[in-house]
Amino acid sequence: MEGNNQVKIKRELPIHIIGISASGISGLSLPIQKIIQSAKKLSAPKRVLSNLKEWWNDQNSKYPFPDYFESDKPSKLINWLKKQDQQIVVLASGDPLWFGIGRILLSNFPSDRLIFHPSPTSLQLAFSKLARPWQDANWISLHGRDPSPLLKLLQKKPETIGILTDPNKGGAKEVIEILCASQLDNIYQFWICERLGHEKERIFQISHKEEVLPTLDPLHLVVLIKKKPTEDTNLDIPLFGIEDSFYLTHNDRPSLITKREVRIQLLADLELPQTGVIWDIGAGSGTIGLEALRIRPKLELLSVEKRLGGKELIQANAKRLSVSPSKVMEAEALSLLKEGGIPQNLSKPHRVIIGGGSANKTDLIDAVLNRILPGGIIVIPLATLESLERFLLMLKSKGCESKISQHQNFRGVPLSQGTRLQPTNPVFIVKGKLK
Ligand SMILES: C[S@@+](CC[C@H](N)C(=O)[O-])C[C@H]1O[C@@H](n2cnc3c(N)ncnc32)[C@H](O)[C@@H]1O
Question: 142: domain range?
Answer without folding.
Answer: 123-226
